[in-house]
Amino acid sequence: MSDGRAWEGNIKARLYERVRERGFDSLTAFAEARPAVPLHLLAEELGKDDVAGVQVLSGLLAEAERRKQVTRFVRDVFTRLWSESVPDGWPAMMDDDARFAVAEALARWGTYTPETHEQRVDQVGDALLATPPTPGWRPLSPDDELLRTLLPDETV
To answer: pTM of the prediction?
Structure first.
């Protein structure tokens, strides 16, 4: 975790310098090479002491907006949060611990979602709770079939 130095200096320049050092031309390419890895771990890889997960999130959103792929970004964030909160996939039995883990993942997803997609994310969460996926379901990328069905890309 960052010790506060993440907010010093030119944050964007530091992020992109670190990404290029690792052979990637964008933050998105760096993240896509690490599907379903939580944001805080991506940040640690880029700079344990001076990069924060929220900076990675912000950079990924900015790139997604430029590419007009915000819905894909939203699905990607879900996979990263899900792997952290519910690493074994959708629970076979919804006991209190499982219910909390699922609720935590869905709530965090909602807080990390751009305003433009909040309503759609709420609907997806409701759909998952109303009709749960098979036990063990765990999206490994934003291209997961169920996620794409529940949250399809916009048609432009």
So the answer is: 0.91
